[in-house]
Amino acid sequence: MVAETGHWREIYEGGSAEAEQRRFQEYARRMLAVQAAHARAAGGPHRTLHAKTVVGVTGAELAFAEDLPAALHAGAFRAGARFATTVRLSNASGVPRSDAEPDLRGAALKLTLPDGGAHDLLMTSYPVSHVRNAAQFVTVAEIGARSRALAVPRMLAAFGPAETLRIAGNLRRAARRCESLALESYWSRGAIRWGAAGPVRFRLSPLDPPAPAAAVPAGDPDRLRRDFHARLARGPVRFALHVQRFVAEAVTPIEDGAVEWAERDSGWIPVAVLTVPRGTPAAESEVDGLAFGPWHAPEEFRPLGNLNRARRAVYAASAAGWRRG
Predict the structure, then answer these.
(1) Catalase core domain: which residues (predicted)?
(2) Range 111-133 average pLDDT
């Protein structure tokens, strides 16, 4: 089944929204098993992925540009609008690990809307997903939670040589050592609807980050946290929020999360600035207790594509699982 709006569309796995939802419930069940495996390895319950809250602050602000193009006005996102924002920066592993280890990093923003509701924006430090869809994502997660020695043979059996090579390459490039979370860029990877403007992807990029007060030892297991708060002690940490608009399915696909929307096809448009003010206190324990999800958003900003639609079921099950634990 195809759901079309204007010149863009969504294609439902299994032929209908109902069939897709049944599959997503099965994916959620399988991801809970992955979460349980990670909990056993870590000695306690955690999120299925992004288990370690590296930085958590509650005093940030997202300010939209005074000259925001009229075409990008949507909902509460208007020229000059400002939103109190909670920020969570994390390591992507489902088991809490040292900040010194190679990993993908995550950024999650929780905006407080004028009506008191919340709007979450989630990103990671690599522009595309390692997988094309939810079925691949769950299979890779299951393989990763088992013996690493057998990971490649299991991926070959599941995906074949070409897809295994692509997935493994993306995982290898995305999981790297990080100098500072204040120096990273973070991409949505999947698309969301942006009101009447239609599908967009979005990205946070660093703006003139202050230098750290002192170098943090490279082997410090909390080095990224110490670095970020050292920078905050010297000045604000700021990021630019950009969006990239849908052009055509051939170059800016909605359903395939592994395809990058190239800048030559759709340029990045600056829309807002995220500011974590100088001296903002650490609030990792408070922020760690919050649930973030792409579907925590008004309808005009609903997530699009197979991976994002699956996240609705999987994130809800995961949050319930680690909170219960």
Answers:
(1) 45-141
(2) 96
Please compute the mean of the pLDDT values over residues 88-103 and round it to a whole number.
Answer: 91
Q: Report the chain's terminal Cα–Cα distance, integer Å.
A: 38
Q: Looking at domain 2-324, what is its CATH homologous superfamily? A: Catalase core domain (2.40.180.10)
Number of H helices, E strands in the chain: 7, 11
**What's the confidence (pLDDT) of residue 155?**
95
How long, in residues, is the chain? 325
Q: Where are the domains of the chain?
A: 2-324
- Calpha distance 290→21 (Å, rounded): 25
What is the reported pLDDT for 324? Answer: 46
Residue labelled with tokens 């979460």: 35
Residue among 54, 84, 57, 60 at smallest CA distance from 281: 57
Q: How does DSSP classify residue 103?
A: B
A 10 A CB-CB count for 279 gives 12
Which single residue is written with the structure tokens 């992507």? 92
Angle at CA of residue 250, ends 18 and 2, nearest 5°: 20
* Tokens encoding 52: 């370690």
The rounded radius of gyration (Å) of the Cα atoms in the chain is 19
> Does 323 score more than 50 pLDDT?
no
Alpha-carbon torsion (70, 74, 78, 82), positive or negative: negative
Instruction: Please report, for residues 56, 175, 252, 266, 321, the alpha-carbon distance to residue 85 in angstroms, rounded to integers and kept in the order given.
Output: 11, 27, 29, 28, 26
Percent of the chain with pLDDT over 70: 92
Higher pLDDT, 205 or 33: 205
How far is CA 180 from each of CA 19, 212, 215, 321, rounded to the nearest angstrom? 43, 9, 11, 31
